[in-house]
Design goal:
heterodimer, A: 425 residues, alpha/beta, seven-stranded mixed beta sheet, two-stranded parallel ribbon, 17 helices, 12% strand, globular, B: 404 residues, 14% strand
């Protein structure tokens, strides 16, 4: 306190301090409090709840059967190798080449000709969000008249990303509330009716929030129609390996498009499938006509990264490179990813059986039809509010349940609560 | 047919491109004085001991997980960072008037602050010093602001063009944003004196100009964390509002981990809370939440008084080595009788010296002596050692006398 008085006195004693100084009001008095993020706000509310029965099936972060976050063994081993050994010099603007090379193999295939021919422009990105944002900025800069078609519904942050990139957005039909499955006919109509050469955002697998994916046949039809219309496909792949347990199988949609010759874009994230959430590791790639174009495009992607964060963080990239570059660690990772996916698939079966056991009048087969981390339950916002208020169960108000938060310890309680709020429906 | 077939290749980044060229040179006497990353006497990159200790602590803690950080980042890290730049006893902190968010090093902090201003502030022009770090204009332009310059460096004196600075800021519209380098101006190494800072502060407050500090070298410039934060603290002490972007790239050697923080000092706690909520809306569509590892290292060090003290010692060693290189280079030039006044080498502060060499001389030194620097004549003192100072002095002497 004394120090503060001393400083104030010193400043006031210079005669012109008060001369012409503007009135002492804030520049930011007109700033409104922002609404809470609909997804991340759920966990905040959950943490603040003192009830011992509380269940968090909100944010999509994997939990083990004890409800605890998991650090994969392959990750712990990679970290042991990294700690204290390496310097922390700036990565290039495009990130770790080693990490990017391994990451492209996952999406495009180990033996991909596109990789051999160096036709893919790729940079390390700040997880999936960062990859989508750099792509959106790139789209704005180089296809300034384009808009983005986004599935309805989608991860809420997709809307924020393309809006902040100043790219106009439209939605295309995706989810069918009646069947709690894919509205394939309307989806195809929207693809056909969009102007030729439109840009589309597609979820490669494990659609977020619905868990509803096209079948292989449906993907082939979508790809064909995209060719007819000359559309651009941007795949957001946040769950490779995590959906079916098999990374090759989860990349099928992308491979179908590549076989058909599409020059796609792709966002990849290691947040879920390697449990590296907080490390922010991902990759943005764009398939080009030839190596020269890929070099040009990559240089332009870097120009967008430089004024955003200069170069990406190294730690997560090191972990990925070490794991994917070591055959034994990679095998271990594949095993652990399958373990996570299997646990989720098991919980889907368990949740559905438990609700059916209670004699629910409704159909719950969508729980096991849907795939990936999320189940789009079909519950209304009002029903979700009841779940929260009466049962201390936290999820997003669109009725999306993160299956990763379901355990053998809470599945019965969850089933009971869901039955309670839906039985009168 | 690709939708991107018209795309031309972007030019190399002028700063990072220097290292690319250096790496391609096979001459054994080559010297990289380009990018600002610290090197030891042996010319090696340095990981601080205190950072290694913090890393080991983290990796040996089985309870640590890798969950998403909140959008605003690691809470402990934010608290410690605000205290570091504003002072532990800062009334602004005690009064909860500071909104601090973890960002991706200095670049990320500037970008998030810029985007916030473009969305919420009525004045969309930011004044940046001439010259400044090459990435500054791009950051603010992409954030949605328009960029103007104010006079800063005087080539005649190789010092501060103080009158020019006061004139240009005096002519700025009320409320304009002004970017200030907190210490160790990049690229010139020329800082205002304490008295000059006080005059700048008075002028800016009288015109309602908004200060936006870029603090990338706290502790690294003079060796004292408090001395290097004095400019920022003067502005905060008068009760007014300001922005401060912090980077831990150099002073903790955490370059590639991308650790930094943006602090916005507001009039009231209520305003600070609203501001923080709006900062989240800027961050979420950019990268959702910041990376965990680097911030964990910083928090581990800043929270532990032993590690903190060790850090200040290692920091001072780095700063002292740089100051010693400055002295040695000046002495080497003077002993060679190189024409001109080279005392600016020891007057300038921080990682860089703005030598005053012109583009031709820079090219000559690259071609004949394999010495790499940016074409504006900026050299990174961190890239020098006692062994290599003579080589540089020879090159500079040759460059200056040949064109004399």
């Amino acid at each position: 306190m004394a120090a503060r008085i001393a400083i104030t006195t010193r400043i006031k004693s210079s005669s012109s301090f008060l001369l012409g100084s503007r009135s002492m009001s804030s520049w930011w008095g007109n700033v409104n409090p922002a609404p809470k993020d609909p997804i991340l706000g759920v966990t905040e509310a959950f943490l603040a709840d003192p009830s011992p029965d509380k269940v968090n099936v909100g944010v999509g972060a994997y939990r083990d059967d004890n409800g605890k976050p998991v650090v994969l063994d392959c990750v712990r081993e990679a970290e042991r190798r990294v700690a204290g050994n390496l310097n922390m010099e700036y990565l290039p603007m495009g990130g770790s080449n080693k990490m990017v090379d391994e990451t492209l193999k996952l999406a495009y295939g180990e033996d991909s000709d596109l990789i051999k021919d160096k036709r893919i422009a790729a940079i390390q990105a700040l997880s999936g969000t960062g990859a989508c944002r750099i792509f959106a900025d790139f789209q704005k800069r180089f296809s300034p008249d384009s808009q983005i078609y986004i599935p309805a519904p989608t991860w809420s942050n997709h809307h924020n990303i393309w809006r902040d990139a100043d790219v106009p957005q439209r939605t295309f039909h995706y989810y069918h509330p009646e069947t709690k499955g894919l509205d394939f006919a309307s989806l195809m109509d929207d693809v056909k009716n969009a102007p030729n050469g439109s840009f589309f955002l597609l979820h490669a697998c494990a659609h977020n929030p619905t868990g509803v994916d096209p079948t292989v046949e449906q993907w082939k039809e979508i790809s064909y129609q995209f060719k007819v219309k000359g559309h651009f496909a941007f795949f957001d792949m946040a769950y490779q390996g995590f959906a079916s347990g098999d990374p090759e199988r989860d990349a099928k949609s992308i491979r179908i498009f590549l076989e058909d010759g599409h020059l796609i874009g792709c966002s990849q994230s290691y947040a879920k499938n390697m449990g590296l959430y907080g490390q922010r590791v991902g990759c943005l790639s764009l398939v080009c006509e030839d190596e020269k174009q890929a070099v040009a495009v990559k240089s332009q992607l870097q120009q967008l990264a430089r004024p955003m964060y200069s170069n990406p963080p190294v730690h997560g990239a090191l972990i990925v490179s070490i794991i994917l570059g070591d055959p034994d660690l990679k095998k271990l990772w594949l095993k652990e990813v399958k373990g996570m996916a299997d646990r989720i698939i098991g919980m889907r079966t368990s949740l559905r059986e438990n609700i059916e056991k209670l004699g629910s009048p409704l159909s719950w087969e969508h729980i096991t039809n849907q795939i990936g981390m999320f189940c789009y339950s079909g519950m209304t916002p009002e029903q979700v509010d009841r779940l929260t208020k009466e049962f201390h169960i936290y999820m997003t108000r669109n009725g999306r349940i993160s299956m990763a938060g379901v355990t053998s310890g809470n599945v019965e309680y969850l089933a009971k609560a869901i039955h309670e709020v839906t039985k009168a429906a | 047919m690709s939708v991107f077939s018209q795309i031309a290749r972007a030019p190399e980044d002028p700063i990072l491109g220097v290292t690319v060229a250096y790496n391609q040179d096979s001459d054994p006497s080559k010297l990289n004085l380009g990018v600002g990353a610290y090197r030891t006497e042996e010319g090696k990159p340095l990981v601080l001991n205190v950072v290694r200790k913090a890393e080991q602590k983290l990796v040996n803690d089985p309870s640590r997980v890798k969950e998403y950080l909140p959008i605003v980042g690691l809470a402990d890290f934010n608290k410690c960072s605000a205290k570091l730049i504003l002072g532990a006893d800062s009334p602004a902190i005690q009064e909860n008037r500071v909104a601090t968010v973890q960002c991706l090093s200095g670049t990320g902090s500037l970008r998030v602050g810029g985007e916030f201003l473009a969305k919420h502030y009525y004045e969309k022009t930011v004044y940046i010093p001439s010259p400044t770090w090459g990435n500054h204009p791009k950051i603010f332009t992409l954030a949605g602001l328009s960029v103007k310059t104010y006079r800063y460096y005087d080539p005649a004196t190789r010092g501060l063009d103080f009158q020019g600075l006061l004139e240009d800021l005096g002519n700025a519209p009320t409320g304009a944003i002004v970017l200030l380098h907190a210490c160790a101006h990049n690229p010139t190494g020329v800082d205002p004196t304490v008295d000059q800072w006080e005059q700048i502060r008075k002028l800016m407050r009288s015109k309602g100009l908004l200060p936006f500090f870029d603090s990338a070298y706290q502790g690294f410039a003079s060796g004292s964390l408090d001395a290097d934060a004095q400019s920022v603290r003067m502005f905060v002490a008068d009760g007014g509002e300001c922005f401060a972007a912090q980077s831990y790239a150099k002073n903790m050697g955490l370059y590639a981990e991308r650790v930094g923080a943006l602090s916005i000092v507001c009039k009231t706690a209520d305003v600070a809370s609203k501001v923080e909520s709006q900062l989240k809306l800027v961050i979420r569509p950019m990268y959702s939440n910041p990376p965990l590892h680097g911030a964990s290292i910083v928090a581990t060090i800043l929270k532990d008084s032993n590690l903190y003290n060790e850090w200040t010692v290692e920091l001072k060693e780095m700063a002292d080595r740089i100051i010693s290189m400055r002295k040695q280079l000046l002495e080497a030039l003077q002993s060679r009788g190189t024409p001109g006044d080279w005392t600016h080498i020891i007057k300038q502060i921080g990682m860089f010296t703005f030598t005053g060499l012109n583009a031709e001389q820079v090219a000559f030194m690259r071609g004949e002596y394999h010495i790499y620097m940016t074409s504006d004549g900026r050299i990174s003192m961190a890239g020098l050692s006692s062994k290599t100072v003579p080589h540089l002095a020879n090159a500079m002497h040759a460059a200056v006398t040949r064109t004399a």
